[in-house]
Amino acid sequence: MIFSREYIGYLSRRTVKHLQDVKLIHTNQAALVEERVAEAMIEELSLEDRINDEVRIILEAYQQEMLKSGAQYAEMFKKVKAELVRKYKAVI
Fold first, then answer.
1. Pairwise CA distance, residues 47 & 36, whole Å
2. Radius of gyration over alpha carbons of the chain, in Å?
């Protein structure tokens, strides 16, 4: 993940405070809302990490074929990742 959990916590606190200030939300349990916003942010931000892990697993399974055909790992990584991003309809 590109951001630390502390920074995500900060972002979630600022987001909830902003939403309260502009009266888009009203809550007496700001800490609970901040926690849920942080969890959602972490889930979204870790999507690319999960996709990268899946790409590595796929390429590991095809390692012998890639060696035989002379395929470049970096090029195949990009292609497989693009396919998975399309499959999951992710925005990265």
1. 17
2. 19
CB atoms < 10 A from the CB of 1, how many?
14
Q: Taking CA 42 as the corner, what is the angle to CA 2 and CA 81, rounded to the nearest 5 degrees?
A: 60
Q: Give pLDDT tens digits for 58-72.
A: 999 999 999 999 999
For 6, residues 6+ apart whose C-beta sits below 8 A from its C-beta are none
pLDDT digit string, tens, across residues 18-49: 999 999 999 999 999 999 999 999 998 899 99
Taking the C-alpha atoms of residue 32 and residue 20, their distance in angstroms, rounded to an integer, is 14
